[in-house]
Amino acid sequence: MTTPPPDPGRPPPAVAVQTPKSTPIADYAVLGDGRTAALVSRGGSVDWLCLPHFDSPACFAALLGTPDHGRWLLTVRDATSVTRRYLDDSFVLETTYETPTGTAVVVDAMPLLDGRADLVRRLEVLSGTVTVEHEWVVRFGYGSIEPWVRRVRDGEGNRAIRAIAGPDALLLRGERLPNAVDHRHRDEFDMQEGESVELGLTWTPSWDPIPDRMPIGERLEATRIRWAQWAHSARYDGPYRDAVVRSLLVLRLLTDGSTGGIIAAPTTSLPEDFGGERNWDYRFCWLRDAALTLEALLEHGYRTEATDWRDWLLRAVAGDPRDLQIMYGTDGRRDLPEVVLDHLPGHSGSRPVRVGNAAVDQMQLDVLGEVMCALHLARECGLEETHDSWALQRLLVEDLTHTWRHADRGIWEVRGEPQHFTHSRIMSWAAVDRAVRAVEDFGLEGPVERWRAVRDEIRADVLEHGYDAARGTFVQHYGSTRTDASLLQMVQVGFLPPDDERFRGTVAAIRAELEVSEGLVHRYHPQRTDDGLVGGEHPFVACSFWLADALARCGDVEGSTRVLDRLVGLTNDLGLLSEEYDVEGDRMAGNFPQALSHLALVRAVHSHEVAVERARRAPDAASVRA
To answer: In percent, how much of the chain has pLDDT > 70?
Structure first.
C-alpha cells in the first residue's frame, strides 16, 4: 500500500516566540458542545480550541500567540460593518459582514453531544458579491507540534484534509477546501448572492477511521433547538432577563455533559495583569465555583444538573477526607501539575503561559462551606439525599471540626504565607451550620449537639478576631487592618443578618477601600496583601456583583439597581463576562467567559428581585440604606 506524501502545508520545525498584537478578549464569542469549547473572534477566527475535552491540549492556540500557533479563519474581506448574535437562547453564533459590494452571514456552532467532536461553519451571501478569506492552520500541543497533513477522501468519496500528530487527528471537510501555501492552508474566492459554502471540522483519535460526513444544516438547527429548550426552563422574566438567561447558558456550557463536572472557564492564561505574570489555567473543576454555580442553577429550577454534580462530587472526592482537594479535572482526576509553555508569547505579551494549576495542592478551608451550602439548597429544592452522599458530607464536616483553626491560602489562592482568613472561618461556620440544619430540618443522622458547639465556637472566634471594632468592619485575616470583598458573602450564607451594623460597616469599608468606580471593586489590594506575586490586577467582576447582592439584601434597591446596571453593561455584545475589568483601559481581563462572574450575576439579580418585591409590599423598606 502506498502512503501518500505529506501535504506541503506542513509547518516549519519551530515557531519563533514574539510579542503578538492580541485580539481584545471582548471580541470573542464562545461555542461549546458539552465537552469542550471554542473561542471565535469578531473577525471570524477560531483562536482557541481544545479537543476533545476542556483541558485537552489546544489545536488552535492563536489566543495566546499568533496565527502561527494555530487558528481557523473564515471571514469576509473589506467588511465595513460586523454584527453578531446568538440565535435565540443558544450558542449558535451568527455573524453578519457588510461590505461595499455585498453582505454575507456566517453561522458557527459546536453540535451538542451527539457522539462527535465537531465544529461546523456555514457562510451564505445575502446580497451582492463578497470576497471570502479562508485559512486553516493546525498546531497540536498548544501550537508546538507539527501535524502530518494530507488530502484524503472519506468513505463516501468526499474530499477532505486530515492533520495527524500523535493521538490527535483533525479532519476538514467542505465543498471548497483551502490549498497548502507557506506552511498553512489558504483560500480566497468571490461568492455571489444566494451562494453558500459549508465546512466541518472533526476531531478523532488518530488511529480511528475517518468518520462519516453529517449534514451541517440539520445539526445547526438541532443544536439551536436543544439550547433554546434548556434555556426555556429558566425561572426569570424580569428586566435583566437577557443577562440572566445568557449567564445560565454559560454555566451550562461550562458543565461537562458526560461527567457533570463544572469548570471555572474554558481558557488558560488570559491575563489579570496585562504584560504580567498573573496568568492561570481555569479549565478545571473548583469545588467552590462549581458549588456556587449549582446554587445559581437550582434557584432557577435546574435540578438535573444538581444531581449530576452531586454524583460527580461523590466520585471525585471519594476516599480519605484529608486528601480533599480544592479542584479536580472534569473526570475527577487529581493530578493537575502546573507547567509553563515557553513557546507561547502569551496574550498581549503576558507570560508565563501556564497549563495545570499548582493551587491544587493548597489548603482552602472555605471550600467545604460552599459545597455544604449548595447541597443544603439542593435538599430544600427537593433533591433527596442518598446514603452515600450524606455519609460523605458527614465525613468531610467531621474532618473540618478538627482543622478549622488552621491557617490556609483563602478563597483567592494566595501564594504568599498562609493566614487565618476571616472568610475561610465564616465559610467553615457555614459548613458546620448546614450539617446541623441537615439534622434539624431533614432528619438526617449526625452528632448534632457537638456540631452545634463547634459552630458556636467558630462564630465566637470570628467575632473576636476577625472584626475590627474600632473601624467597624470585618478584616481580611486575623491581625489585618484591611478588608476583603469576599466578606460580602457572610450575609449570603447567614453568618450575620443584613441589618447587622457590623455587616453594614463592612460593606461601607469595602466600598471605601476597594471600589474604584461605582460598583467595581477589587477583591483585595495586591500591593498591600502578601499574595506571592508581583504586579497588580483589575476590579473583580464576581465581587462587584456580590456588592450589588449585599446592597439588595440591605434594602438599598436604588443602590443595587445602579450597580447592576453598571455591571450588566460590562458584558460584551453577546452577553459574556470575563473574570476582571480594566476600568482605565476599558477592556476585559482574565479568563473568559468566567463561571464565577456569570453565577454572581444570576444570584445578584435574584437578591435584587427579592428586594424589589419586598419594597413593593412594604414601601418604607426601600428607604433603608446600607
So the answer is: 95
Model confidence at 561: pLDDT above 80: yes
CA distances from 270 to 67, 155, 341, 351 (A): 17, 41, 14, 10
| pTM for this prediction | 0.94
Q: Is residue 548 within 8 Å of residue 604, measured between CB atoms?
A: yes
Using an 8 Å Cβ cutoff, are 259 and 330 in contact? yes
Give the Cα separation of 136 and 186 in Å (integer).
Answer: 7
In whole angstroms, give the CA distance from residue 420 to residue 404: 10
- Please choose, from the candidates 58, 51, 158, the residue with its C-alpha nearest in 3D space to the C-alpha of residue 110: 51
Q: Is 219 exposed, middle or buried (0-12, 13-18, 19+ CB in 10 A)?
A: buried
Domain 25-228, CATH homologous superfamily name and number? Glycoside hydrolase, family 65, N-terminal domain (2.70.98.40)
Backbone angles phi, psi at 581, to 5 degrees: -135, 125
What pLDDT digit, counting tens, does each position of 2-53 carry?
333 444 344 344 444 446 689 999 999 999 999 999 999 999 999 999 999 9
pLDDT of residue 626 exceeding 70, the answer is no
- DSSP-derived 3-state class of residue 314: helix
- Separation CA 353–CA 193 (nearest Å): 44
CB neighbourhood size of 73 (10 A): 22
**Is pLDDT above 60 for 99?**
yes
Give yes or no for a contact between 581 and 272, defined as CB atoms under 8 angstroms apart. Answer: no
Say whether the peptide bond before residue 52 is cis (omega within 30 degrees of 0).
yes
Q: Which of 195, 364, 186, 378 is nearest to 291 (CA)?
A: 378
* CATH fold of the domain at 233-623: Glycosyltransferase (1.50.10)
Question: Which residue in the block uniquely carries the three cell numbers 460527580?
Answer: 312
Sign (positive/negative) of CA torsion 491, 493, 496, 497? Answer: positive
Show the CA angle centred on residue 34, arms to residues 29 and 35, nearest 5°.
Answer: 95
DSSP output for 215-250? -HHHHHHHHHHHHHHHHTT----STTHHHHHHHHHH
Per-residue pLDDT at 622 exceeds 60: no
Domain edges within the chain = 25-228, 233-623
